[in-house]
Amino acid sequence: MLKVGDTLGGTFIIEKLLNRGGFGRVWLAADTILERYVAIKELIEVDESRIDNFIREMQIVARLGHKNIIKIHQAIPEDEDVYLVMEYCNSGSIQDELKKAGKISYDQAVSVVIDICAGLEAVHKQGIVHHDIKPANIMVGGDGAVKISDFGIANSSGGTLCYMAPEQFGNDCDHDDIRSDIYSLGITLFELLTGKVPFNGSRGQILNGHLYGDPNFPDYVPAWLVEIIRKALAKHPDLRFQTAAEFAQALEDKQAPALLKPAMLSASIWNAEAEKKMGNQKWYKARFSLEEALKLYPEFSLAHANMGVCYSKLGDSDKAYNHFIKGRKHQTPDVIKSLASLHIEREEYGTAISSLSEYTYRYPLDFEAQNILAQAFYEAGHYERCIELLTTALAKHKGPAFMNNRMIASYLHDGIISAPDGEWAYLKYNLDVMNEDPPSSDNIKTKLLFAPYNHQQVANDLTLSGIEKPFNFSSKNQIVTIGKFTGNEISTGNSKVSRRHCAIIRESKEQWLLVDLQSTNGTKINGQSVRRKSLTAGTYDLDVAGEILILGLY
Prior knowledge:
This protein is of the alpha+beta class. The chain has 5 domains: about 5-85, Phosphorylase Kinase, domain 1 (2-Layer Sandwich), CATH 3.30.200; about 95-255, Transferase(Phosphotransferase), domain 1 (Orthogonal Bundle), CATH 1.10.510.10; about 265-320, Alpha Horseshoe (Serine Threonine Protein Phosphatase 5, Tetratricopeptide repeat); about 330-455, Tetratricopeptide repeat domain (Serine Threonine Protein Phosphatase 5, Tetratricopeptide repeat); about 460-554, Tumour Suppressor Smad4 (Sandwich). It is about 40% helix and about 15% strand. The chain has 18 helices and 18 strands. The chain has helices at about 50-65, 95-100, 105-125, 155, 180-195, 205-210, 225-230, 245-255, 260-280, 285-295, 300-315, 315-325, 335-345, 350-360, 365-380, 385-395, 400-415, 425-435, and strands spanning about 5-10, 10-20, 25-30, 35-45, 70-80, 80-85, 140, 145-150, 460-465, 480-485, 490, 500-510, 510-515, 525, 530, 530-535, 540-545, 545-554. It starts with 6 loop residues before the first strand and ends with a strand.
């Protein structure tokens, strides 16, 4: 820890404390060799896991030598701390000027932000995001030039609440998205003009402002400038200026470009159609609409997020993840729940539990999310937690999925079958499995089915050929099982087929689900090995351990 009178690196004599903050302290020091004053940032408790990345970013910023970025002279590691020797700006920060004057003229504010845009554009091209743009981090040099400070330091603290972009509050925030800096600079411009940030108060009030609020502009702010700030503060990053250069150009032209490009407007119409279909669980049809949206506007991140949901529901986890990565800024309820289901499928139970625990705390009446969280506990073997969660949910909502899932979790927990009343398909199937003697597997859990919350019990039509007796079933039996056990709806004598090999479940009017019940020799659909596969009406080659059956769904 430095103190007045200390000498750092044999060159810099500490003269006085200039400032202190979350990153550490800033000292004024005399450079005894070059006979100048410098500012030394004393970084306290720097995360060791980030130190290499921090040094790399500082090297890039130092090499840029941009007039609108504080010059970094050197970094001195000493006694497990890091000291950053930087250009000293004796005029202080823009925040200091605001404290004196309250606000500044719009001509001066625009000039400041245009210069900051130039500095940001330079570092953004190097892959560096500041994460804490605000008046306190905009310094004024001796020549009056404004300069961005605290690169790297800001990244370690996550930003300042009043200036943070809405997407930075999500669980899966993209920390490399430069458009978060655009938002923070828009907040900064608002503050330069008005003397205050647009969203203030308690933490909850500030958060709600960022997520849902609209700035209240004084009458003296010109209309063209209001529109530019509104675009910079768009809730979705896709609707903001995409680069700092675009932001600066709008300020110079005194005109905000259209919020929506023509291609994006057309893509938004397709996306809206897809969301209607998703609401009706028409995942295949929704996927086709989203494909049209992405043809028109490939960078449409919301369409990517929705496509991830569709592919998740359709059982293609690889494509789902690829689209979720491109749409990671949009943490809609459907995205959060679909991602959690994919984590469960990949046996990443801790990740699913973590994300859904926070989500269900905020939205306790989202019973679908409660059921997925219960499934994560169930698959992880935390049966008591699963039972506790489902019991609580049943007190508010007597859903058949909750009853079925609590039944199988209770059975695996203590071996006692406590069957609720009802003729629901999952209840009937799981009771048959639990009462089977001898059991189909040493690990009976592999044959049990955890019921989805939104399963629809509808009339079915299903035909199978390639077997002695074709099978048709009604709305009372939504689950058809195939195997060499005589209790299956479809039994086969093939010795490679497991006793309970796979199941076909009618999920909705337009969709079926094929589930391999962890069979020994696997299940294929049209030549592709599957664990879970969503199907629509049509004809398929169903390969059950080498035995080919023709599956017709209508």
